[in-house]
Amino acid sequence: MRLHTSVGDGSYGDEMRFIATADWQLGMTASYLTAEARPRFAQARLDVIRAIGELAAERAVDFVLVCGDVFESNQLDRQVVLRAFDALRAVAVPVYLLPGNHDPLDSASIYTSATFRDRCPDHVHVLAEPGPVTVLPGVEVVAAPWSNKAPLCDLVARACADLGPSDDVIRIVAGHGVVDTLNPDRDSLAAISVAALQAQVDAGRIHMCVLGDRHSTTQVTERIWYAGAPEVTDRDETDPGNVLVVDIDTAQPAARVAVERVHVGRWEFEVAARELGSVEDVDALVGWLDGHSGKDRTAIWLKLSGTLSVRDKARLDAALEEQAEIFGSVLIWERHYDLSVVPDDCDFGDLGLTGFADDAVRELVQMAGCEPGGAEAQDALGLLYRLTEASR
Ligand SMILES: [Mn+2]
């Protein structure tokens, strides 16, 4: 074991240290990003492995533990696996991979594919068997791998079932799945019982439990944590982009565990709700987008409501189209869209329309206030406005 002598007042002894992470979801596709941004986002998921390697060196950790969903699925191009291995070579310490619900150890597992078997670097290990495995002298990881997509029991409880006293060993549980205290479906057979796990902690049989599945870093109890995804995967995540650096006092593992969350992710997914009622509101939204840092690594979902004139809506559409070229993506979230376009007298009065075009505008203005067809008429007015303005 590599021992870390603490600095400061020396009130605790030597330590073992590891990085806890999960849910790398390598190979995931992101259809909501622009075509240009998608490969950059995929690359970011690999780059974060290198960032973890740098952090591992900086903090002199003993190993890296990845608690499930390393891969988005068991059916991925060999390119994803080969690139993952290339990135993993930048991690100088042993790396332990736990199969999760996306990458279970079933008959079609990516972990048993020819590419994986033939090309896996020597320092990368798959936690294929449930139960304890010695990762360092005096340190065990108690693994709870998924062997299929629909387990019929609490895999973590099962992996811990036969643990004896931990007199001379530090034990870290590696699991994946939803804990019962956070699961709306409490009757789910596979839910991880927090009470059962905490009882193992209280009995001193385990000293830390790291879980995957929840992509937001979450502390469940003092020693039960979801590491979270090191790079964001979904707009509903509250605290993604982190890994955990875990210190355990080797002399008194039951006495002290220190968990530090370290941000390593570079992408940001953001949801913004705006009520728009004037050109000033439109300009404020555009100004907010303009001032955003890291646009090329940011995806924005807009929840828009309110009422705009045709002219102001056209200004908004043009600005959002432009911003969408710069950001990873700028999307209007359809399910939360409640923006009405109400033609006012100024909208078309200045454009000098005559004849057929003028008739069309009058007809669309009438339709815009009615159902069905109101929304389509509003869109058509906006388009007509922008085309007319552009051709002037
Ligand atoms: Mn996951």
- Global morphology: elongated
- What is the level 1 CATH name of the largest domain? Alpha Beta
| CATH fold-level assignment of the largest domain | Purple Acid Phosphatase, chain A, domain 2
| End-to-end gap | 75 Å
The H-level CATH homologous superfamily of the largest domain, spelled out, is Metallo-dependent phosphatases
Q: What would the average pLDDT be, to the nearest integer?
A: 91
User: What structural category characterises the helix and strand content?
Assistant: alpha/beta
Give the total of domains.
2
Order of helices and strands: EEHEHEHEEEHEHEEEEEEHEHEEHHH
CATH architecture of the largest domain: 4-Layer Sandwich
Task: Give a topology summary.
Elements: E1 4-5, E2 14-21, H1 37-58, E3 63-66, H2 78-88, E4 95-97, H3 114-119, E5 124-126, E6 131-136, E7 139-143, H4 155-160, E8 170-176, H5 194-202, E9 208-212, E10 218-221, E11 224-226, E12 242-249, E13 257-263, E14 268-276, H6 279-290, E15 298-308, H7 310-326, E16 329-332, E17 338-341, H8 345-349, H9 355-368, H10 374-390
Parallel strand pairs: 2-3, 3-4, 4-5, 7-8, 8-9, 9-11, 14-15, 15-16, 15-17
Antiparallel strand pairs: 1-2, 2-12, 6-7, 10-11, 12-13
Helix pairs in contact: 1-2, 6-7, 7-10, 9-10
The structure holds manganese (II) ion.
Manganese (II) ion (MN) binds at residues 23, 25, 69, 102, 213, 215.
